[in-house]
Write a structure and sequence with these properties.
alpha+beta; four-stranded antiparallel beta barrel
Length: about 110
């Protein structure tokens, strides 16, 4: 009986230790952070435009809030030789959801320096 409790407790602590915890500092995993986007528009404009049906097919819901959405975004890298800045013609934004590849970033705020 004691052996069963020890095994159960051991399994639960192992699962708890292995559970992923999302980062809130904008780093890691590409889920959130600063990116360079070719376009930044309101969510309602994107949903009613030509990308609306594609977003529906992909299951990407922009939600009822009219937040800013970045399109064709790429992460900022220092490797490109631009000291981490966006190239000309793109906008630097900090987005809460960059998990949809380079297609769309959701919940963006312009970065001002």
């Amino acid at each position: 009986m004691l052996f069963n409790k020890v095994i159960t407790l051991s399994a639960l602590t192992t699962l708890a230790a292995a559970t992923a915890i999302p980062r809130t500092d904008g780093g890691g995993g590409g889920d959130s952070g600063t990116v360079c986007c070719e376009q930044v528009q309101s969510a309602s404009t994107v949903e009613s435009g030509p990308l609306g049906p594609l977003l529906t097919l992909l299951g990407i819901a922009l939600g009822p809030l009219d937040a800013l959405v970045g399109l064709n975004c790429s992460p900022i890298t220092v490797i490109g030789g631009q000291n981490g800045a966006c190239s000309t013609g793109t906008t630097e934004v900090n987005c809460t959801d960059n998990s949809h590849g380079t297609l769309i970033s959701i919940g963006c705020l312009p970065v001002t320096t």
